[in-house]
Description:
Elements: E1 10-19, E2 24-26, H1 27-33, H2 38-45, E3 49-51, H3 61-76, E4 85-89, H4 100-108, E5 114-118, H5 124-137, E6 143-150, H6 163-166, E7 172-181, E8 187-195, E9 203-204, E10 227-228, H7 230-252, E11 261-264, H8 269-278, H9 290-293, H10 300-310, E12 319-326, E13 330-337
Parallel strand pairs: 4-5, 4-6, 11-12
Antiparallel strand pairs: 1-7, 2-3, 6-7, 8-13, 9-10, 12-13
Amino acid sequence: MTAPGRASRGVRIAGTGSYLPEQRLTNADLVAMMDTTDEWIVQRTGIRERRRARIDQGESVSVLAAHALRQALDAAHLRPDDLDLIIGATMTPEMECPTCACLVAEAVGASRAGAFDLNAACSGFVFGLNVAHDLIRGGAYNTIALLGADTLTRHMNYSTAGRGTAIIFGDGAGAAILRATDDPALGILAQSIHASGPGWKDIYIPHRPTDFPSGTPPDANACGYVSMNGSSVFKFAVGTFPKLIEETLHKANLGPADIDLYICHQSNARILTAAREKFGLPESKLHINIDRVGNTVGASVPICLDELVRDGRVHPGMKVMFLAFGGGLTWGSSLWQL
């Protein structure tokens, strides 16, 4: 049988799900752990609380992702065996092998699905949207589950020495089911995937002395924890975000007002607000939840998507732009016609 051609089929988002650990880590909790204040945290990040997975109680990244995927399957009215492929966007798998996606496949009973992980840090889910979309559009697969899940709090130093990163990150998971449709107008209108390898040293997790950048003295106490040059990462995000929106709009020959929703990685409330003001967008078009969940890395975008879906703010016919930037350095977009 000849696979359907690109022009003969579209792609739709058939269902979404998300899951947050129950444990809340508030700014007051952090104040008790390190030299900081609620005002200092909110002013710099917009975050008031984040969630923390209880790894010692079995709340691993694949467990969070499996919860989110079950919700997405229910929303799409599908069974696990309807899945052809599972893609796991994560930078914090519990083991080097097997992948998070394989563990999730076992957990939900998706015995027929292929599975692999994709690691692009905070950009992982958006990159995964582009990959999964084109695998379906090209005819190779009909139904793909895309996961975004991370438990970065296990790489946080909850002392004054680590306050620059510990205040930012939280844990969580999100999922979306992508399916083929007979309507070729549905799917991605424009997309981009970018990386700047030299910028890796601005955010990384060292495990041995050779992992530290040239010119940075190895520090055994820093191994296993996120090392981040906060000012450099902030400047990168501030400069990249509006350019990424402009690039994607240009590719689709659209203006800012033509997009119904901008679903963005939640890295910093100030960055998101600045972008909203630059493009003259109403608050309703650019969702912000970082105040409640923190920066959940690869889970950030799908958690936002699922919140918007459950709030009844996502409808067929909408144009929705997904945006993310993160370690690598990486950044990318995925503009959909729903």
